Structures are given as structure tokens and as C-alpha cells.
Predict the 3D structure of the following.
Amino acid sequence: MSEIKKRLSSIIESPNHDTTDKLQKICHLLDQEIPYFNWTGFYFKNGDKEELILGPYVGAATDHTVIPFGKGICGQVAVSNQTFVVPDVHEQDNYLSCSIDTKAEIVVPIIKNGENIGQIDIDSHTLNPFTQEDREMLEWLCGEVAGIL
Ligand code: SME
């Protein structure tokens, strides 16, 4: 297991923190360790409503605290249930801009018992920065996070 996965696991398994604290610590760790992760946060489905609500995050404050299903990259992942890697956000028509500095984005769904209950969203100030390893690590992380939600 990679060093970052070990550190993420130890946050997830920690008996000393509640779930919100753990999600916040995960955001901090990813933000600190991966230089091209410039906004890292979680969104969660708002009960039975077809909208996402912003959860713990690290990065600039965003206007997008509520995102309807289907809107933006996040809203599309809420309905597709698939990871969405966007190497260049300027090529996307259905995109919600959080910061003029953002050039790329990756959103990975959190699936629990077959249901899409939320997602992790990463913005980058670098064009096309995300590697296959990043994608695999984030998909693994979302599987682990599903276990504590
Ligand atoms: N860019 C996202 C909105 C969320 S912010 O990046 C924090 C989107 O298009 O869904």
C-alpha cells in the first residue's frame, strides 16, 4: 500500500475522531501531499432531494454550496455514478466555476450499498494534472469512506 493510502487509512480507522473530522482531515492530507490538488472537498446527497450539499473541504470558499443533480461536473457525477476526469475545464459546457484559477477537475462518486450518496471533488490550477494513480487512489478512498458513512 502506498504511503498516502496508509495515512488515509489511519485517519479513516481512527477511534478518536467523528466522521466529519475524518473527512476534514482527509481533505487536509490530500491538499498538503499533492501539490496540484488545489481545492479538495466532499459533497453529499441532501436526503431525498436531487441536490448535493457541500461537506468538509480545504481551499477557497465556493458559491456552489448546493448543486442540483445534472448541473456542473459534480451534478453530472451524481447521476452518472462514474468518475469524471476533466483535464481542461474550459472545454466543458456543463461546468460550474469555483475559481478563475481552476484548470482541471476530478470527481469520484461515493457508492454505499449500490447507492450514490456523495462524492469527492478535486480542483487543480494545473492543466491535465491527474494521473491514473490519482484516480485509483481516489476511487479506493471513496470505497473506504463509504464504509464510515
Ligand atoms: N466545478 C464544480 C463545482 C464545485 S467547485 O469545483 C468546488 C462543478 O462543475 O460541478
Notes: The pocket of methionine sulfoxide is lined by residues 39, 62, 64, 67, 72-75, 95-96, 98, 105, 121, 123 (CB under 6 Å). The chain has a mean pLDDT of 97. The helical segments are 3-13, 19-33, 72-80, 132-146. The beta strands are 39-45, 51-58, 66-68, 84-86, 104-112, 115-124.
